[in-house]
Structure formats: C-alpha cells, structure tokens
Amino acid sequence: MTLFLDYTLNGLANGMIYAALALALVLIFRATRIINFAQGAAGMLTTFIAFSLISRGWGYWWAFVAVLLIGFAIGAATQLVLIRPLAGKSELNPVIVTIGLLVVFEGLAGAIYGNASRGFPAAFSQRGLRFGNTTVAFSHFDVFILVAVLVMMTAMLVLFRFTALGLRMRASAFSQEIARLLGVRVGLLFTLGWGLAGIAGSLAGLLVAPTSAFGPYYMNLILVYGFTAAVIGGLESPVGALVGGLITGLCISYVGGYLGSGLEPLGALALLMVALMARPEGIFARPPARRV
Amino acid sequence: MDAAAMTKYVPRQPMIRHLLVAVLAGVVLWYLTTQLSTYNVYQVGEIASYVVVLGGLSLLTGANGQISLGHGAFMAVGAYTLGLLMTHTGTNFILELAAAAGVAAAAGVVIGLPATRLKGPYLAGMTLLFALAVPSIADKWPATFGGDQGLTVSAPTAPGSLGQEEWLTWIQILGALIVLVLLANLLWSRYGRAFRAVRDDEIAASLAGIHVARTRVLAFAISAACAGLGGALLALSTGVVNTGAFPLTLSIQLLAAMVLGGTGTLFGMVWGGILLVYMPQWSTSLSTDFNLGNGASAYLATIIFGVVLIVAMLAAPNGIQGGLRWLWAHRPRPGRGDHEVPAPIPVSVSD
Amino acid sequence: MLEIRELSVSFGAVQALRSVSFDAEAGAITAVLGANGAGKTTLLRTISGLVKPVSGTVSFDGGPLVGRTVESIARLGVAHVPEGRGVIEELTVEENLRLATLWCLKRNERQAAIEEILEMFPRLRSFRRSHASTLSGGERQMLSLGRALISKPRLLLLDEPSLGLAPLITAQLMAMLHEQTDGKDITVVLVEQNARSALSVSQHAVILNLGEVVVSDSAAKVSADDALRHHYLGF
C-alpha cells in the first residue's frame, strides 16, 4: 500500500512539471496555433545558464528570476526571427524550424558545457515531509513545484479570461484576420505569447533539473511528456494542461514503479495513443467546427 | 538529331520510364564503383540505404502531408528484426530483409492508426515520443537485444570473385533502385493521387470517395517499411545493430536530409543521402580546422544540421531538388525572347 | 471621403481589379454592385489592407491607405465587416464587442459602449454571454455590424451583409444601416449582390464587371435605368 502511495505522490509531483511544460505548449498554441518543439531544449539551455550563474556565486533566487527573463527573451526572439517570416505558408514549416532549433540548442549546450551529467541545486530540501512519525515521499521541493506551477497556471488563467490583453491574445489565436481588422496588433501579441511560453519552459527546466541527470538531453523526455499532457488536456486550456499533466505523471509513475523503470516512454506512448483513439480533442476542448 | 526529336524515343508509360531510368542509373553506378576506393564504395552503399529510408519519408511528408519525427525508430525496428532473424534462424538474407520491411510496416500501422487523429505538429509530437520510446525497449531487455554491444549481423558472402565491400554496396544499391522504382510507380498511380488528395483537402477527398484514414495509414506503413528496409540494409553493411545507432538526432537528421534534398521528390533524396553521409565528415574536418576539442566537434555536426535546416526552411523550403527544378524552368531558351516562362510539367510526386 | 484611383490587384495570373477609380463621399452610402467574381470583395479587402494592390492608390480623408498594416488602417477608423460576417465564434457576444473597443475606448468607457450596442440590437442581449457560434445568420450579422459601429468608425465597409438572410431580416438590416449612418459624417461602402435592397438605401452606385468599373452614378439614376439594371444587375 505504501508503495502505491509513494508512486502516487511521485507521479503527482512529476505531473506538475509536465503540466508546466504543457502550459508552455498550450500558451504558444493558443496564441499562435503552433507547437514549439524547441521549448524543452530552450528550458534546458536557460537552466544551464542558471547553473553557470550559480557557479559564479549568484544566489539561487537571483539566478532563478534572471533565467525566467532570459527564457522570455529567447521565446520572443524565436518568434520574431524564425517564425514570423514563415507566416502564411505551409503549417509544417514552423514545426520543422522549431525542430531545427531544438537540435541547435542541444548542440550548443553540449558544445559549451560538455556531455557529463551534473548535479543541479534544489531550491528546497528534497527530503520527504514528515507528518508525525511518518515520512512521505513528497519533499519540500515537491511542494515548491506544486506551488510554482499552480501560481503560473492561475496567472495564465487570469490573463486569458479576465484581461484585455488576454482577450486580444485569444482573438488573435482564433481568427488572426478579424482581430487585425479590429485594430489588434496581432504580430506583437504573437511575440508576447512566445515570450510568456519561454518563461513557462524555463520554469519547467529549473524544476526538473535537481531530480534528473542534468545534461543536454534531459528535457527531451519532459518535452514529450509535456506534449502528451497538453494533448490529453486538449491543447486549449491551462486547466486541461494541469489535469493532463497529473494524469500523465501518475501513469508514468505507475508504469515505472510496477512494470519496471525504463519503460516510462512506452507507457507515455501507450497513454497518448489511447487518449487519441478515445477522445482526440482532449478532455477540455470543445470539438472544433469543421469548415467545409 | 536535336533534343526535341530525341524525346519521341522516351517511352510514354511512366512505369517503363522509371524502370529505364533505374537501369541507366545502375549502369552508371556500376562504373562508379569500379573506379572508387573501397571506403568510398562503402559510403555509396550507405547513401543508397539512406535513400531507401528518405524515399519513404518523402512519400509520407511530401505526398501525403504527414510529418514524422520517428523514422529513426522504424529503422531500428527493421535493423533489429534482421539482427534477431539472423541470430536465431538461418534463412536467406533477402527473406530477412523482406521480413524487416514487413515488421516495420506493421509498426507503421500501429503508429499510423492513432496518427489519423492528428495533424501537423500533433503528429510530429507523437512520432517524437515514439522515437524516444522504441530504443528503450531494446535497453530494457538486453538479453534478447544484445544490450550495449547489440546484435551482430553476419553479411552474406560475396559470390564469385566480387569483393565483399562491393557485394554489400551492391545489395544496398539494388535495394535503393528497386524501392525508388516502386515508389515512383506508386506515386504515379491512383494511390499516389489518393495520397495527394488527402494531403490537400481531406474533406474534398472523402467526398470523392477516398477513404481518408486508410490512405493515411497506408502511407505510414509504406514509409515505415522503407525505413525498416533501409535500417536493415545499413545493419547488413555495418555488421552490427545496437541502440546507439538510433538516437533521436537520427530521426531529426532524416527530416533535415529530406527537407534539404527536396520534400516530395524522389531524386532529391539522393542529395539528402549524400548530406547524411558526408555532413559528419565535413563538420569533423571543420572542427579540426578551428581547433575545437573532441566533444565540441561531435556537437558541431548537430548544430550545423540544425542551422542548415532552419535556414533552408526560411530561404529554400523546396530543397536542392526544388532549386534545381526552378533553375531548369527558368533556363534561357533559344528563340523565346522575353516571353513568360511556361509552367513546367509537374513531375514531382508532390504535385 | 474615400478616393480610389487606378487600383489594380492581381492574384498570380488572375487580375481581380483593373484600374478601378471612384469616390465615396462622407455622409453617404455608396453601393458597389456586380455579379459574382466581379471583384467587389477584393476591393474591400484592398481598402482595409488585407490585400496589397499591384498599383493605384486608396486615400481616406487625404491620407493614403496602401502600404499600411491592417491594424493601423483599422485604427484610423476604418471598420470592415467581411464576407461571412467574421464573428469570432469561440468568443462570446460580449467579448466580440469588447474586442472592438480595446484600441479606441478607455477601460471605463467600454462597458457603456457595449450596452449602447446591445440597446440597438436587443436580440443580442439575451445572447450576450453565449458563444458567437450559437447565433443564427441574422444575429451574427447584427453582431458584426454592432462590432463595426461600436468604434464609431469614419469609414464603414460592408461585404454582402444580406448574404444568406431572409428578405425580412435584410430589410430590417438596411433600415438599421440607414438609421445609423444618416446625417452622420461616416463614409459607407456597401458591397451587395442584392442590388435592389442596396440601391434603396444608397445615394451613389458603382457597378463592377470583371474587375472594371462600368458604371459610377447616383443610385437613383441607376435604379431608373432599366437597360442597365437588366444587363448588369439582373432585374
């Protein structure tokens, strides 16, 4: 029974991280209808930068904030330089460009920092929380993950639903042309959307780093797990990303625990395929009207 | 006689035309292999194997509009099938190659079915997950799959006085020629038209009586079979199958090679194959020129691939073959003056 | 006042507009009529900036429009109600209206403007929190017109507002259009295939045929000219 509890708590904590990355993907998708495959690698790169800063004596929290801002800049710059010129052409082109960028980021990180895995400091203790005499498999750091992702998700929700900026972003995502006819500076908003997603991606990178083998490729699996989470949640809503993340996290935790470690990617693939066959538009999405 | 008169000797039937081109290419390649060093002959074989993989990928993405980031994994499926069959059975290598393609095709169906629910970037995401998941199977059961060292593949011995290297290369070249002819014929047939119809407008295609899901799964299965065959051919020539040969970057490099060669074309895949085989060499020599350390040079190849892919998508999305076609269409012609260039007759499989 | 001079637009080898020239006066409704494919929609899309012309100029109140981005043209006070209404289905009725106010009204003015529009189109009131996808064709037309009017535009471009609407609704719509623009300093360009109803509210009429202006005259004269009506407008 305790094993089940451990796996569940572990799955929930990891699920929050996948939710963070899913949030980044949802943000870009809602704003610009594109999936940024370089999102994970960008988060990896910014986390390496944080590592460098901390090694040079920066305080953890200063590095944390700095790197979130750098993530914003990378996201916005990517949209401005690489994605904007592709507007109006085949929808596969931005996909391929972000894949190229993924590879470039990984190569850069590998070339600058080398292949060896390192340890990344955690903001809080990674020992389990104590309740009376029992220690649970949920650490202070896991609580931080939970809080950080919930804060980010709430901020996104509030942004989209209750602000003028959020309205403009949603309108730009749903109908670029109409939004422009109503005076909305769509291009600027797309860049902003990618920038905000960059923040989410950087956050995910920082949250994952302490618990994994911190090397140039460590975000690849997180990216695809985040993608799975986003698809399950429907790619439209922050709440969907959260629920999708938790489902994915739990599933992967159980697969890894009961079926053996190393099979997690297969478990995620199976989950994704089942979700797609059962409910392709995701849990929270409204089925889109087909334009004939 | 002039070029115009000679065209009446080119057969009308596209299928026969493809066959003739293949035979001609075969003759040229035969001459080439007798002139090159053994190592270069090996590389020609490598290129041929990649052309098999890329041809299938070009069909999937160019003609059918589905993007795959997982073709490295299909190559692994084919290669491991070959390895396992060779280790546990003693059948003819041609049957084993066919089996490799068949098993990969089955994997293509398994992925292709949920893929019918996905478009563009969603599909790319799922195939990305697939690319990461498949190698983990081999890692999980090292006893069956040979662990880090992998499985050994004993190549069939060359007949007669033919050199072993030449023999292996020729297996790969013949494989590539046969696959290209089959793919070319397929793309000219009604299946090809169905692929393109589904790519261009699913709703219109289904209204025209084409079964959209079936068509998409078929495209996936065929391209997976090509990848599996290519992977098996490569295994045949390298003699070993292990997971180290199929990282995620391979799938991305396949995508890049296809794009740079010319998505949707078949001949362009030859450029793609050349890029795949020579890019690591060029970047290694580049990094020695710049005195970069060993670690950095491995990553330099990756960075260059990524940068070239990005630049190609922004500046030349039709790749090398597309550029060549453009040049051919805009070539100066005698007696035409300043008239508009007539639209070239579409020969690309993506038209 | 809108001035169009020698406007030519091509899509590849197809020339949609050939040297189109005419004026649309402020305070008046100018109808742009003609058969399908005559270039009417292209004309409006060129004015609002969605399409770039090959040559020619479009000026509004002396300022050129060609070369500006769509959003900057909209912020000059140009409201384009596109073909098919252009309501954003995933947003609610109120959100659709609010969206149009964001660039021109301050936060505390927006709600009042929305209420004013809902007063004008009472039917929309009951749908205010519903997604625009639930609206019927006529209701969508009201929404898109309301959305255009909420920003108090100086140039109003309407692309086939009567398309797909029952004649009764069309009549109401035209009456509403007349009411809202009569006596105000707003220039209206009304593209219609339903020439009869368009002529009934317009002061000026332009007829396009295959991308060219064949008639540019007062609406009364065009209505009265039987031969012209039969030939180009089908009635």
Quick summary of this structure?
The complex is a heterotrimer of chains A (292), B (351) and C (235). By secondary structure, chain A is mainly α.
Structure description:
The complex is a heterotrimer of chains A (292), B (351) and C (235). Chain A has helices at 2-32, 39-55, 60-83, 92-113, 140-162, 164-174, 176-181, 186-208, 218-233, 238-259, 264-278, and strands spanning 128-131, 134-139. Chain A is mainly alpha-helical and 292 residues long. In chain A, helix 1 packs across helix 9, helix 2 (39-55) crosses helix 8 (186-208) and helix 5 packs across helix 6 (164-174). Chain A has a two-stranded antiparallel sheet. Chain A has a domain at 24-220. Chain A starts with a helix and ends in a 14-residue tail after the last helix. Chain B has a domain at 13-248. Helix content of chain B is 73%, strand content 1%. Chain B contains 15 helices and two strands. Chain B is globular, with a radius of gyration of 21 Å. Chain C is of the alpha/beta class and 235 residues long. Chain C has one domain: Rossmann fold. Helix content of chain C is 38%, strand content 26%. Chains in contact: A-B, A-C.
Show unreliable segments of chain B: 336-351
The ordered string of helix (H) and strand (E) elements of chain A is HHHHEEHHHHHHH
Mean pLDDT of chain B: 82
- If you average the pLDDT of chain A, what whole number results? 84
Lateral strand order in the biggest sheet of chain A: 1-2
User: Which geometry of chain A do the CA atoms define?
Assistant: globular
Low-confidence stretches of chain A: none
Q: Report the sheet with the most strands of chain B, covering strand number, pairing sense and barrel closure.
A: 2 strands, antiparallel
Instruction: Let me know the number of strands of chain B.
Output: 2
Instruction: Enumerate how many helices of chain A there are, as a single number.
Output: 11
- Strands in their spatial order, largest beta sheet of chain B: 1-2
Query: Radius of gyration of chain B from the CA trace?
Result: 21 Å
| Total count of helical runs of at least 4 residues of chain B | 15
Instruction: Give the H and E element order of chain B.
Output: HHHHHHHEHHHHEHHHH
Cα end-to-end separation of chain A? 53 Å
